[in-house]
Amino acid sequence: METRLLEYFVTVADELSVTRASERLFVAQSTVSAGLRSLEGELGVALFERTTKSVRLLAAGEVLLPLARALVDDAEELRRAATESGSGLRGRVRIGTFTGMQLLDLPGVLGRFRREHPLVDIQLVSSPVGSTGLADDLGHGRLDLAFLAVPAPPTLDAWPIATFDFVALVPEGHPLATRAAVSLADLAGEEWVDVLPGYGNRLQLDRALADRGLARHLAAELPDLPSVAPWVAAGFGVAVVPDVIEASGCARLPLTDPPPPWVVSLAVRRGAARRPLLAALAEALRAPA
């Protein structure tokens, strides 16, 4: 059985599109389609239900996908190990990270790593839907390593690197600004500023509000966490955020009933840390914590 055919299977299953899979694999659509037919013939089962508009993984495909993915990963690891054994660490690493916020000295850490390993090509990627998108990209092989602020699914290995409590931000002249602490109920009737849906801190806060039966009105939804404080300072609303951002012009207040702490983790696909390059990079990124 050719590893190339298994790679076609895994990539089409990830993308649920022969067109997108062929683009990701840099081969013709007809080649991918023919490869899938060949693999299905060899296995004696249909893996997908394919129409002109959609691709759906069938029951046999669901069962065989984890096995195929493991074989593809092992074959890739064998090739990488053979290459690295003679020339040191080399290859491309795609890292998913947050926009507009540094939880550690990422430029410094990655700069040192590149100087020590000049044959490594590091690419930084962000997601418009925050940790949810990064976790999905990591799980589907579009990233090699990512920072996440959502619980890692079973398909990923993750190591916590930082933890932050949630605090309330209100404009300095707000009636609540002189309080020693506030509750989520105290804030619920205000206008709110928050990040976009899909970000880990937004998911945690939405869950905490729902658990308490509280609703809120969002006046602004922003594309990154550091942007929240300036809008609060300008009087646009209040916010509840991890205590990790600069908040000039805001009163920063403890919460009497905060959501659970915001945990940021470094994650890879399950088992991928066996790859020497990812193991070395993960160690470098975890060391500053």
Would you give an account of this structure?
The chain has 289 residues and is α/β, with parallel strands linked by helices. The protein has three domains: 1-86, Winged helix-like DNA-binding domain superfamily/Winged helix DNA-binding domain (Arc Repressor Mutant, subunit A), CATH 1.10.10.10; 88-163 and 261-289, 3-Layer(aba) Sandwich (D-Maltodextrin-Binding Protein, domain 2), CATH 3.40.190; 166-260, 3-Layer(aba) Sandwich (D-Maltodextrin-Binding Protein, domain 2), CATH 3.40.190. Helix content is 42%, strand content 22%. The protein has helices spanning 3-15, 18-25, 29-43, 59-87, 106-116, 130-139, 184-188, 200-211, 228-233, 276-286; strands at 48-50, 55-57, 91-96, 120-125, 145-148, 156-164, 166-171, 191-195, 217-222, 239-242, 250-253, 262-269. The strands form four sheets. A five-stranded mixed beta sheet has the order 4-3-5-12-6, sandwiched between helices. A three-stranded antiparallel beta sheet has the order 10-7-11. It has a two-stranded antiparallel sheet with strand order 1-2. The longest helix is centred in the N-terminal third of the chain and has 29 residues, at 59-87. The radius of gyration is 23 Å and the shape is elongated. The protein starts with a helix and ends with a helix.
